[in-house]
Amino acid sequence: MNLRRKKALQAIAIFCAFTFAQIYVQGALPGATPGAPVPQRQITARLTTRNNQPITVNGNQAGTGATLLTGATIETPDQVSGVIDLGDAGVVEIQPNSTIKFDFDENGNVRVKVIRGCAVTRKKTNVLPGEMELYTDQASEKTDKKRRHLAGCLLPNGQLGSLGGGISGATLAGIGIAAGTGGIIAGALTRGGTMSGVNPQ
Amino acid sequence: MNKSVVLGIVGALVCALAVWESARIGYARTQAIKALNWNEVASAERATRLLSSDAEVHAARGVVLERTENYADACRELERAIQLRPRDYFLWMMLGVTRDLNDDPTGGLAALQESMRLAPFYAKPRWLAGNLLLRMGQVDEAFQHLRFAAERDATLLPNVIDLAWGVSGNDPGKTVEFVAPQTDAAHMALAIFLATHKEGVAAVDQYRKVKLPPIGASNQLIEKLIESRFFWEADFVFRAHCSSCTPEHFVNGSFEDDVEVGNRTFGWQIPSDVSGVTLSVDDAEHADRARSLRLDFQGNTNPQTVLLSQTVTVDRGGRYRISFHAMTRSFVSAASPVVRVLDASDEKLAVLGEAIVSANASRWQNYAVDFTTGQNTQAVRIIVGRTNCPNNSCAAFGTVWFDSFSLDHVSEPHR
User: Fold this and answer.
1) Does B87 reach chain A within 8 Å, measured CB to CB?
2) Is pLDDT above 50 for A86?
3) Where are the domains of chain B?
4) Which of A46, A70, A191 sits opposite B90 (nearest CB)?
5) Which helix (H) or strand (E) segment is A16 a member of?
6) Minimal Cα distance from B39: which residue of A?
7) Which CATH architecture describes the domain A45-188?
8) Which of A58, A184, A198 sits opposite B94 (nearest CB)?
9) Domain locations in chain A as residue ranges
10) Residue contact A187–B159, C-beta within 8 A
11) pLDDT tens profile B122-140
12) Does A110 lie at the interface with B, CB-CB under 8 angstroms?
């Protein structure tokens, strides 16, 4: 065996070893996955309140940055509204002086029961298959392909108020801004004598 | 002379400059405060233009932008404020919150971590970091921060327990693991929470770990356990504060002690808003010992109204007898006074027995109600009211006294 052939054989051997190693690694990775426990991601929502004023979640005070879980009951005082960001599912806005109970799942199904006052739901387009529902003991409104936003107030007869007929994004933004400015007067938030204070809870 | 004039002019100029600078700073900060009070972006911008190297005004503008949901600009403004004042935990905390709102949870967490580094013992940055980590799916790390926050700020404890309950899928064991209570207050808060959520056994487990249970919180726990129909557990907590109280016995059965209005635990309960009847403890008339309970009827009262009640624990499948004394004077009504025994463990409050008090008993008479408890009965509720009448509006006049309530086994029950 001359030197040239020897080198060629060595090169082939290294190439084969490298190739087998690649096959081994690629074959091993899928095998490891089924045995590994898949952590179950908790479906959560994020609360934002106007001017970081506290509102009540399941009877406890909570403010901007608080985490909400499905089944939560949320109550807003006078002049404070809240926004619940459900990520890809959309957004639920609770108006001042209102109480809602909301449930949601990983498919983007969101059910908001209006117990008192008014609420708005805004669905994110085509991200998740689920629909958003605004309901009372007597009435129910759901989003669909044509209607991605819902807004309604609980009427004395248990029905949802006229806002439930579907409103534009501009109107919703107007409601948000109005609620925001409504809360500003109450928002004298300070931190230890300095003026930059806000109070995320 | 000339030198003095020059010095004077220089001094005046320096003073004028100082006055101008003070006025500029004052005006800029006033604008920033105005911006914060009214969420005025224009005022905030004016303030930052006037005082571009002041962390306060940049922070104010950042906060106003965050409130008006311009999160991207708010982040930039807060970052500028942090450049000018890098060791302020609060600015880092605000940046963390704002970055999270700007859909940048990783950046938000980094800012919150810096805030925690600068203020390692403060509750708020920990609370916010815990919430953010929870939403990012890092549950164990999240609860480390949440627990720390609740230890530093006890007002956050109910929120932490509520989150633990939700994250655990309403599992009491996992909830306790997440909360990992270390103090009496934490054990007690968890016990009340679990009792409220119908986890009586787990609630009492937490109560047992409280070294010095406070009376107020214990009463709250008893109320919640009774509401959830965990009567034996409620009785266990009750007896920890009442050494003379024993199960299967009336508390204050002879009315020798005062009856507390608004009591919702064991012992006599009387309504605070009943009309047409006056209840009082009477030391002039009594069947035994020194006092009795007196009811003065003054006209229209709803016969359905429960005038007096007490919950007493019993054993399952036992035969019992309730004895009491009663007396009436000038009592006139189509609906007579009655003592009913209800199964408190039954949602429908099934009537187990009753004794109607004679309207013409001008001397103390002994009455008895025999009853057998069901297989699920943990407690009975003894109520004093009136018998039904056809149109539910039977007026009543006169006086009725009750005394010497007691409960006795007729046969041995089995738990």
Assistant:
1) no
2) yes
3) 10-120, 277-411
4) A191
5) helix A3-35
6) A184
7) Sandwich (2.60)
8) A198
9) 1-30, 45-188
10) no
11) 999 999 999 999 999 999 9
12) no
Residues of B in contact with A61 (CB under 8 A): 155, 159
- Put simply, the answer to whether B128 touches A51 (Cβ < 8 Å) is no
ipTM of this predicted structure? 0.80
pLDDT of residue A90: 92
pLDDT on residue A162: 63
Chain A residue nearest residue B109, CA to CA: A65
B10-120 CATH:
1.25.40.10
The structure's pTM equals 0.79
Fold of B277-411: Jelly Rolls (2.60.120)
pLDDT in tens, B240-262: 888 778 888 999 999 999 888 88
Which site among B29, B39, B54, B70 would you substitute to test the A interface, given the most A Cβ atoms closer than 10 Å to its Cβ? Answer: B39
- How near does any CA of chain A get to the CA of B14, in Å? 28
Which band of pLDDT confidence, cut at 50, 70 and 90, is reported for residue A96?
very high
Distance CA B128, CA B267 (A): 44
B56 → closest Cβ in A66, A70, A196: A196
Read off the tokens for B128. Answer: 């916010």
